[in-house]
Amino acid sequence: MVVAFVLGFVGFVTSFGAHVVAVNLPFYAEGIGVGVAVIGILIAAYDLAEIVAKPVFGAIADRQGMKRTMLAGIAVFTLASLAYLVVPPQLLIAIRFLQGLGAAALSAISLALVGTYFVRDRGRAYGIYNAIKGAGYVISPIVGGAIILQADFAAIFPVTAAIGVLAFALAASLPRPATEPDEAFDDDDDLSWSSFVAVFREPVLLPWYLVIVANMFLVGILFGFLPVRIHELRLDPVTSGLFLSVVAASYLLIQPVAGALADRVPAAVTIRAGLALGAAGILIAPFVEGPALAAVSVLAGIGVGTVWTNTDTLVSRLARRGRLGATMGAAGSFKELGDMIGPVLIGVLAQAFGLATGFVVCGVIGLLSVALVRGRSAALAAAPGSPS
């Protein structure tokens, strides 16, 4: 499982790199004299680059080699981070977009490589990968705050670059993947537009892409608007931070367990249960407080964490031969889409009708998404946790 740890650390590059900058953008805005709208644009620039580029780099990797494409993505991310030190700070939006492009390649391909390296115990490997990658979201606010306390906003970028250099060195030491482009493709299977969009139209994959959107919809709400609910209860900062850390820990720690379960239990069962837990947690959150809210939030974290890892495992198994990179890239774009839709929708609903209404409506939408899995259970009855 050393390979899974290395690939997880490659994924950590983007989770840490994206979040350590995003949570400290208020200091940047204050320093150069811009408003909160610019903060939103800077966050969106990174996400937009990932949404657009993940399937593109995935398709390229299927033909040019996954390891080579992943290393190129790490290099772009690292060089973009260092570039901030030599350009005017007003060009941060360009830096963020370039970081997002590099992140799209390293993130999508590291995810696909888990499926390439691990034919057996694939679920367990994806659980380890996602837990390590997700750790970036947990520690980046702490590390970023410490950096700014000791130096300034610009000092964040050499730190992210150093992590990129370490990831590059570790990834370069990985063995050659067993399946390379020349073995996986016919000579006439070129990188055409039709072959690129084919992964978005695969009948067997489309329902699972929608499940991914639904789960990330819940993830975005849980981690974006649970802090709003906590603030509404007027908890002190220390208690709030501990509360959110416990929820994040439940989301991370369940992933290796869920991944191991995905190797033994039919995929539709675990994914359906996870969606139901996550949606129910969102639905109940505005009506409880104290320990009850903590318990509900932890259960929601366990639910969305389970779906995150087990949809990765399932989609990788359903990918057509020679299109694993493009398929996982497409899945990554759908993740980003769901992560954007959730906070936007609950924000609009909360603004118009109140926070409780926003949680309830979004929770109901999440529960309805369980039907997406129920409708596919029979089709997957012959494809349980065992690798196909």
Indicate the topology.
Layout (H helix, E strand, L loop, with lengths): L1 H21 L2 H8 L3 H29 L1 H18 L8 H26 L4 H29 L5 H17 L8 H4 L8 H9 L4 H27 L4 H26 L4 H18 L6 H28 L5 H30 L1 H20 L14
Helix pairs in contact: 1-5, 1-6, 1-7, 3-4, 3-5, 3-14, 4-5, 4-7, 5-14, 6-11, 6-13, 10-12, 10-13, 10-14, 10-15, 11-13, 12-13, 12-15, 14-15
If you had to describe this structure to a student in words, what would you say it looks like?
- The chain has 388 residues and is an all-alpha fold.
- The protein has two domains: 1-191, MFS general substrate transporter like domains (Growth Hormone, Chain: A), CATH 1.20.1250; 202-388, Up-down Bundle (Growth Hormone, Chain: A), CATH 1.20.1250.
- It has 15 helices and no strands.
- Helix 1 runs antiparallel to helix 5 (92-117) and helix 6 packs antiparallel against helix 11.
- The two termini are 20 Å apart.
- Residues 181-189 and 378-388 have low confidence and may be disordered.
List keywords for this structure.
globular; Growth Hormone, Chain: A; 388 residues; mainly alpha; single chain
CATH class of the largest domain: Mainly Alpha
What class would the helix/strand composition place it in?
A: mainly alpha
- Overall mean confidence score, pLDDT: 84
- Assembly form of the protein: single chain
User: CATH homologous superfamily of the largest domain, by name?
Assistant: MFS general substrate transporter like domains
Please tell me what the overall shape is.
globular
In CATH terms, what is the architecture of the largest domain? Up-down Bundle
The tally of strands reads: 0
Query: What is the helix content?
Result: over 70%
The number of helices is 15
Here the CATH topology of the largest domain equals: Growth Hormone, Chain: A
Largest sheet at a glance? Answer: none
The first-to-last residue Cα distance is 20 Å
> How much of the sequence is in beta strands?
under 5%
Number of structurally distinct domains: 2
Low-confidence stretches at least 5 residues in length (pLDDT < 50)?
A: 181-189, 378-388
Helix and strand sequence: HHHHHHHHHHHHHHH
Radius of gyration: 20 Å
